[in-house]
Every structure is written in structure tokens, then in C-alpha cells.
Amino acid sequence: MKIETKQQYYEAMAAIESYLQKGFSNLSDAEDNHLHELSKAVEIWEMKEYPMPIKPDFKAILLHIMTIHHFNQSQLASELDISKSLFSEILSGRKAPNINIVKSVHDKFHIDGNILLDSL
Q: Rounded to an integer, what distance in angstroms lies between the CA atom of residue 53 and that of residue 70?
């Protein structure tokens, strides 16, 4: 089975939902196999149509925050309670952020901690 259009995708998702509502223990072998085929086809289609973003680095996260909140470097440095010079060095890659800065980004901007730690 291959999904090639959004309509086919929505139909596959509806069929998956109906199987889930029925319950795994209530599915026949044929329905279980069909659910497995649908799930694989949906996964392939989603990976093609909605690829996961590339893992961001810490600088990219800071730049994203600046863009979203319309901050300049001085404003974001102030929000994070760090000096403008330290912020500039982090952006340039001359210094790495310490755990307090990472925690501040997490607390103030609700960025997932795992994403932040992976970005270091």
C-alpha cells in the first residue's frame, strides 16, 4: 500500500482511527494486518510530507527566540539575565552557555529541556 495524496492520507487515518476505536483485542487477523499496512504507509507519507527539522544548535534556538519575540541581542541578554558581551560570545561560538543560561531559556521561553541539552 502506498499513499500518494492528502485524500488517501486522510482516508488511511480514518481507517486507523476506526480500528483503534474497535480495540486491538477485537480485531480479526485481516484487520490487524490491514492496520499494520496502513500504519506503515502513513509513516512513510508523513516522513516525506512532514520531515522532522534538523537538530538545532543553541545559537539557532536563541536566534529563533529573538525572531519570535522581536528581541534584539541586548533585549534577549537582559531577559536571560546575562551580560551583552557574554550573549554576543555565545552567539559567535566563542563561549558555550552554562547550565544557568540553558535553564533560563527553558524557564522563560518554555523550550523543551531535551532539545536544549541536545543543542549543546
A: 22
